[in-house]
Amino acid sequence: MTFDWNLAKTFLAVSDEGSLSAAARVLSQTQPTVSRQIAALEEALGVTLFERTGRSVELTHSGIELLDHVRAMAIGANMVSLTACGQSQSIEGQVRITASELMSAYILPAVLQDISNQAPSLEINVIADNGVRDLVRREADIAIRHVRPDQPNLLMRRVCDQTMRFYASPDYLRKRRQPTKTNVSIHQIISFVDEDRMLDYLRPIGLDLTKANFRFSSSSQLVALEMARRGLGMIIAPDWIAQGLTDFVHVLDEVEPFKIPTWLVTHNEMRTSRRIRLVFDHLVDRLS
């Protein structure tokens, strides 16, 4: 089965913008043209991609399943185009990425290596910050966040959900009883956020905890992780980090894993900045 790639570009624009009229503005087309192109793509694929809800549209289940594949096509097409004409080699300037300390230390270096191979003249500054940088004020160009931003005029994409669980070091487990939901009150949990926030999150899932269970904490995720490795307490850590470290063991398996969304966010300049677009597309591809 074949279909016109331009129809796929229209599909991406509508899914990203959330309405036919907004997509038409981005594509410099009329709304009826965009509507016809979506209808043509739906007919070619034999599925309904969008549900119309007033002036906006929402992806159907079929549309959601198709989205990642079409986005991968778009990223590939963009890189083929840049490479073919040598533009990726000529892209230069600085791109600032802000992400959590764990993401900055464990994920971004490998992504930046790929980007450097594609655009060797590009400068990238990673701002390892567990807070929320303000993209509207241009404190960064691209942000990787775990909360959906509510600022206007930002482009955002939910790229994945992180799975987090309780982990402990073998040294910690040798000193204490195996943690369970019934004895969790005698254990220590290392936190890198405010204790009150942790209690508000953990008490409703049936864990009998007080501030006494958080004797060790740090505003730095890396410091908190090292504390847990040294046996000072359990920690809630992403699977993609903890499972790659030999000195961590999954504990409290009675507790359902925590699902944390990951958003990739940038400002509207991405539409006209080749360097930001290249980095953003790479991040979408790798983080997805």
Summarize the structure.
The chain is of the alpha/beta class. The protein is about 40% helix and about 20% strand. The chain contains twelve helices and ten strands.
Distance between the termini: 26 Å
Overall, the morphology is: elongated
Largest sheet: 8 strands, mixed
Q: What fraction of residues sit in β-strands?
A: 15-25%
User: Which CATH top level class of the largest domain fits?
Assistant: Alpha Beta
> Count of DSSP helices?
12
Question: What this model shows, in words?
Answer:
The protein has three domains: 79 residues, Winged helix-like DNA-binding domain superfamily/Winged helix DNA-binding domain (Arc Repressor Mutant, subunit A, Orthogonal Bundle); 95 residues, Periplasmic binding protein-like II (D-Maltodextrin-Binding Protein, domain 2, 3-Layer(aba) Sandwich), CATH 3.40.190; 98 residues, D-Maltodextrin-Binding Protein, domain 2. The protein is elongated. It has 288 residues and is an alpha/beta fold. Strand 1 and strand 2 form a beta hairpin. It has twelve helices and ten strands. Helix 1 crosses helix 2, helix 1 crosses helix 3 and helix 1 packs across helix 4. The strands form two sheets. Strands 3, 4, 5, 6, 7, 8, 9 and 10 form an eight-stranded mixed beta sheet that branches. It has a two-stranded antiparallel sheet with strand order 1-2.
